[in-house]
Amino acid sequence: MDHLFSGFDCTQQNAEVHIRTQTVSACTPQNSNCAHSAVLNIDENECLQRILEDLHYYLETFRAFSNSELTKSVVRSIDELMQNCFSVSAMDNSPAKVSMGQQKSFQERLQLCKVLKGFNIRTITINRVFNHILSK
């Protein structure tokens, strides 16, 4: 995927994290001080629903970019996670409503870089939540 980012250094760009679903606040322990509590209380159903909404957002965003490498790797991985953890599949859905066309402008590629970095950050949150739930 390096060719998608030719002309700029993606590692130097800021991440763009999807915050509309409020996943972090939904998955943050309520009424708990981590330093003094071994039990972290979160509303698992609400947290998992927010994670699923995030996954749908990123899936559609990456699909809209219409890149075969993204589809083979990132989109497929998101779909597998949705199937295995939420019993939901989005791979058979029609293409995203917004298409970015065949030729990707510099701004579109820059935006993709930032969204991929944001998705990377979100996957850390998702991983921590799953580990917490499974450790119970």
Automatic annotation (TrEMBL):
Write out the coiled-coil annotation as residue ranges. Answer: none
InterPro entries (alphabetical): 4_helix_cytokine-like_core, IL-12_alpha
Q: Chief subcellular site?
A: secreted
Subcellular localization(s) per the UniProt record: Secreted
Question: Is Methyltransferase among the key words of this record?
Answer: no
Q: Name one GO biological process term.
A: immune response
Give a Pfam family name.
IL12
Q: Which GO CC terms are listed, alphabetically? A: extracellular space
Top-level taxonomic group: Eukaryota
| MF terms in GO | cytokine activity; growth factor activity; interleukin-12 receptor binding
Task: List the keywords (alphabetical).
Answer: Cytokine, Disulfide bond, Growth factor, Secreted
Subunit structure comment from the entry: Heterodimer with IL12B; disulfide-linked. The heterodimer is known as interleukin IL-12.
Query: Which family does the UniProt entry place this protein in?
Result: Belongs to the IL-6 superfamily.
Q: What is this protein called?
A: Interleukin-12 subunit alpha
**What species does this protein belong to?**
Onychostoma macrolepis
